[in-house]
Each structure stands twice: as structure tokens, then as C-alpha cells.
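Task: fold both queries, return C-alpha cells.
Query 1:
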Amino acid sequence: MFQYLLLTLCLKAIAANPLSGRVVGGQEAQPHSWPWQVSLQFAYQSSPDFFQHLCGGSLISGFWVMTAAHCIVDIPGRFAVVLGEHNLQKVGNEYLIHVDLIVKHPGWIPTSLANGNDISLLRLAQSAYYTPDVAIASLPPAGQILPNNYPCYITGWGLTEPFGTPALTLQQAYLPVVDYATCSSPYWWSTAVNENMICAGGDGTTAGCQGDSGGPLNCKNDAGAWVVQGIVSFGPGSCVAERYPTVFTRVSAYIEWIFTTMAQYGRR
């Protein structure tokens, strides 16, 4: 019972806050330097043409975006993604495409972030088109496990601090990987994490926060290319806490499901 209460207090989805800000402890990204990053937006049924940032996501094909399952709110309205975005309140070369199909992982349990499987695929109503500001993300090989302290970056429009003021521009922050043995040990996340997750950060200074959910953990591979290794899932209620790193869905654990789903529902 104590463990359940502790988990309830500690786990907080780094998700849906319409007044989203930026990564805690990060800095503004060079505009369009992460061209697969999208802003997942939502319009309430009462204001169907007024979309607001909800979560992040990654463009993984012309028709598909990958995000967190917990970002898919059960509220009347509709979803869209904005591609080529940097400043959420300035008009530039970004463009919006509506979402016409949402596929949550069948193992996702909304009441248990610690169960994992926090991944959804969104099919776009029309194909993304390529500009200098829009590109498709590279995904890791199936089953790949990154070693401890592997250098990665989180990107997103999440809060700079809990209940902080929103920032408008895409942020980035350096978050080195914390291996599973460490992250699952006592005084870290313990049983709140499993092997289908990646932990990164945990220095008590830099982390994801509300509004970053669904966005990518970007890590270079041996060839020097950026790969989306993680999907922002959850963190401590305070966003930043020493030994409680930001937790990501490990993309390499879901490669078969991702490609099977896209093939099943078409428009790859």
C-alpha cells in the first residue's frame, strides 16, 4: 500500500497543459534544428477552429506521427499536428494537418503509467510535405539499448518549472541516459520503471515538464545521425528531482508494433 501511495504521489504525466512552456533547465533550440518535432494540438468541440499546443510528437513517415498514449485526452474535440513549428505564437512556414486516426498501443493502461506501453500513432488526414523545416525522424534498430550516460537531448514546449509561465519557442536540453539497473534501483524510480522505458537526466536541474509529453529523446547513432530513441512519458511531480530522471517510452522496444500498425492502417 505504501508503495502504491508513493507511486501515486511521484508519478506525474508530463502532459497536457494548454499553457505549455519549455524544458526545465534547457535553452531555446536553433529554429528548425529538430525538423521531425511536431506540436500535437487540440481544439475543443466548443471552439473547433482554435487549436492549442497539448503535447509533442515526432513525424515518422509522411502520414504518421508518434506520440505518448497519455496525450490522447478523452474530451470532445479534435486533434491536429503542426509541422515546421518553432514559435507557437508567430506565423512562419509551419503548417497544420488534421489527425484522422489514433491508434494507442493495446497494452496501454491509462491508470498506470508505470505499466509502460505509453505510445500512440496518429495518422494524418493528408501527407506531410517536405520543406527545409520538416523532415522524417530516424528510428532505432529493434531492441537497441543505450548505455549509461549516453548523450541525448530532449526537445519540447514544456514548462520551464512547475506551474511556471509558458515559453513560446521550442526548447532543448541535454539529458544523458541513466541505465535500467540504476534507474530501477532503490532511491531512484525503483519498480515504477520497466525495461521498455529509458531514463535520462536525474541531476535535479534539467528535465522534461508539463507540455513535453510525447516529444522525442534525440540521440546520435554511431554514424552521427540523430535518432528518436524515446517518447517523453512521465517524471516526478516537481518535474525536477535528483535521482528521479525523466522517463521515456523506449522506441526500440516497439519497432515491430510501429511498422505493423502503419502497414495495417495504410498511407505509409
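Query 1 returned. Query 2:
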Amino acid sequence: MDNLTLTLQQAAIKVLQDYRDFLGHDPESELHLVFDEKTHHYILLETGWHKNQRIYGNLIHLQIINGKIWIQQDGTEIGIANELLDRGISHQQIVLAFKTLERRKITDFAVI
């Protein structure tokens, strides 16, 4: 694994761990960190039950593709991209994959 991919991987993992810790513990649900370091998928998943209703959701899904972190899903209020920026990842190394290509073009982040 090259140094750039390793740096992006470490940032993705740390951001997800920090976000999980920030959300804290809920007795009715669990937060799961799912890391596939071979295909470079990093996911924060919530499962559980609340008043007989199933909780199952992908809160955050990051993927490293061609030297960039692609944000496939962002269920945060402030935006996980801001957390990545705080960790030293540049705007041009972050792709807002959950936005259309046209919307990406008007952001400060990478288009592809």
C-alpha cells in the first residue's frame, strides 16, 4: 500500500472512530465500524430496535478510490468532509460522491 493510501486510510478510520465515540452508547442500538482494508471501504453502521421499530442504517460510508476519499454516504449534521479537512486531508482529496456530478462541480471539493 502506498503512503497516500495509508494516510487516507488512517484518516478515514480515525474519523469514523471519533464519530462513533461522539455518538456515545444507546442501550437500544449498536454502532458498528466495518472496515474492508482490501477494497478500501470504511463504514459506520447502526443496528437495533426502538419501540418495536427496527433500526438499521448506514450513517457514514467512506471509500478510497484513486488517491481520494469518496464520501458515499454522510448521515452527519456538520458533514464528514469537515472532519476529514480537520485531519489534514485536502479539498482535492475528498469527493462528495453522494452529490450529483453537476453539484460537485460547484463545491470546493474534488469532482472525481
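Both queries returned. Flag for query 2: The first helix runs from residue 3 to 23.
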